[in-house]
Amino acid sequence: xxxxxxxxxxxxxxxxxxxxxxxxxxxxxxxxxxxxxxxxxxxxxxxxxxxxxxxxxxxxxxxxxxxxxxxxxxxxxxxxxxxxxxxxxxxxxxxxxxxxxxxxxxxxxxxxxxxxxxxxxxxxxxxxxxxxxxxxxxxxxxxxxxxxxxxxxxxxxxxxxxxxxxxxxxxxxxxxxxxxxxxxxxxxxxxxxxxxxxxxxxxxxxxxxxxxxxxxxxxxxxxxxxxxxxxxxxxxxxxxxxxxxxxxxxxxxxxxxxxxxxxxxxxxxxxxxxxxxxxxxxxxxxxxxxxxxxxxxxxxxxxxxxxxxxxxxxxxxxxxxxxxxxxxxxxxxxxxxxxxxxxx
Length: 344
Fold this sequence. Notes:
Protein name: Major histocompatibility complex class I-related gene protein-like isoform X3
Helix content: 25-40%
CATH class of the largest domain: Alpha Beta
Distance between the termini: 93 Å
Family: Belongs to the MHC class I family.
CATH superfamily of the largest domain: MHC class I-like antigen recognition-like
Mean pLDDT: 83
Strand order of the largest sheet: 5-4-3-2-6-7-8-9
Number of helices: 6
Keywords: Glycoprotein, Membrane, Signal, Transmembrane, Transmembrane helix
Organism: Parambassis ranga (Indian glassy fish)
Structural class: alpha+beta
């Protein structure tokens, strides 16, 4: 039975949201690793990099390099921001280490700042979070532009509330800087960022009793949905969604599992795995069909006869070798004649 792929063609125009995200990591106690590292991503694609060793902004895409060459103020802003962030993040991590009396070991202070832009409505939004040793400590309300502190970071409140320059920069970042740079990235990287690569979809199963995994790989962008349906309706019971993960070539992959232990075999064809990009009604629909499931197990009836014959012949050869070895050892030691006595 062939794997059934149905492309449901309902082309519609939908707005697309683009994002620009900055990840900043400041650490102490790590050997052979920069104390400060910053990377920026547009729609999940790495576009620039900076660390405390190079003190500059390095493009990570050809079109990013072109942007920085043709728009030198873009490069200059990122260099100056990187230099300032190196010092600010050191101050922040030192405050936390001092407060918690962390004099040794490895400690990490992280910042995640991001903005989104709707290319149809031109609306923008953003968020910013800070963490220390893998725990959220501070966030900003982008609407009221006020800091929110967790209990662990309560001691930090007065310092940041009094730092008006930091809040002013954050406000300008959300309303002007981030959306401006994001739009420039989209213009220069349009051919790469606005493409749509359809995935290859497969059904996988480790053993006959395990869940059936619907695996999609090679798709771009990562704004995509995948789910199991029964008779055309999305189902949730017995379904487990995996994360969207990056591939080495810049595309993405994801998996959605369906527990088939309670599904009668006669009803399998009522179930389908459906993949679609967000904002697009085109879908790739894959029917739950036992004949096309890739599995590690091999039914006895399908076990290759050649393999079985090979195993038998191999065992016979092994037995012959062992017998020859025993004979060789016996001949090497020689035969000893039984002692006799002659009567005179």
